Amino acid sequence: MKLNSKIITLGAILSVSLPVLAYQGLIENRLIEGQAMVSTKQALQKREPAGLRAAAELGLRKFVAELNEGEDPNSIPSNYPFSVESISQMKQATLDFAFEVFTTNPNNISNSSAPFDRMLAGTGNWKVIVMVDKKPVGLIDLVSENGKWEVRSAGAAKTAEKVAALAKSHSGGDAFRFVRIHAASADFLETKANSGEFKYVPLSSDTTLIGLSKNALNEKEETREKSSSEVLTQLKAAVARSSKSNNQ
Predict the structure, then answer these.
(1) DSSP state string for 137-172
(2) Where on the tree of life does the source sit, at the highest rank (predicted)?
């Protein structure tokens, strides 16, 4: 009976210890993920131009105050630029990391033989992710006028969600660039693999102009990383179609 008691006791200890160890492992993994995200945000904030964050904080408060003026705080007006359940939630809004918008002109896409990543240049315009309850609810766009940063527009909640999610898996300040090609109505997140190869994740809500049918593709395919050559081929076709349409 003593042996059985020991076996039962050992079994009881194991039954308690294993869940505890599993829980500790879960906590440790979350701490590691949190530390990686903090380092990513810190690295990204180091890239921000001087005065950008302070202007974004002030601009967001002013923008939201004007937007919400005269509105029921428990309501959500149509076409509200932030993805919240009521406008009162915007009182809790905070800013996450900022990122510059990169682009290239249609002539480069159509005629240049350079790799796509070398065609891109910074526009000087920046976007900042707006958070409520630790969730991305939209972006604010900032431009510099006469040496001062100003908030010009807001919205694009789905883009904010995608950028925030992808940033978690691409740590480091130089791990990604936000790319906007106006001639093709296309947005991408450019990432760099360990091999040094550049990859591009489509972010556009409307992917038709770059040859991707929303109806024909599932969500996994729409967000699949694409090579530089694959993206450039699609963009060349989109720019050609856009040019032909404009000339008609």
Answers:
(1) EEEEEEEEETTEEEEEEEE-HHHHHHHHHHHHTS-S
(2) Bacteria
**Terminal Cα-to-Cα distance of the chain (whole angstroms):** 94
102 vs 25: CA distance, rounded Å: 40
Element (H, E) at 186: strand 186-192
Is the model's pLDDT at 81 over the cut of 80?
Answer: yes
Instruction: Give all strands (DSSP E) within 53-169, no chain letters.
Output: 94-103, 121-132, 135-145, 148-155
Q: Give the DSSP letter of residue 115.
A: -
Domain 49-247 has CATH 1.25.40: no
Contacts of 247 (CB under 8 A, 6+ apart): none
pLDDT digits (tens, 9 = 90+) for 160-195: 998 988 877 665 545 689 999 988 888 999 988 777
Would you say 154 and 62 are in contact if contact means Cβ atoms under 8 Å apart?
no
Alpha-carbon gap, residue 231 to 236, rounded angstroms: 9
- Compute the average pLDDT of residues 6-10: 44
Residue with tokens 């002109």, as numbered in its chain: 105
| C-beta atoms surrounding 222 within 10 Å | 17
What are the sequence ranges of the domains in the chain?
1-47, 49-247
Question: Model confidence over 146-165: pLDDT tens digits?
Answer: 889 999 999 999 999 989 88
Phi, psi of 94 (to 5 degrees): -130, 170
Give helix 2-47 / helix 157-168 axis angle, nearest 10°.
Answer: 120
Q: Specify the 3-state DSSP secondary structure of 175.
A: coil
* CA geometry: angle 240, 245, 248, nearest 5 deg: 125
What letter does residue 82 receive in the DSSP assignment? S
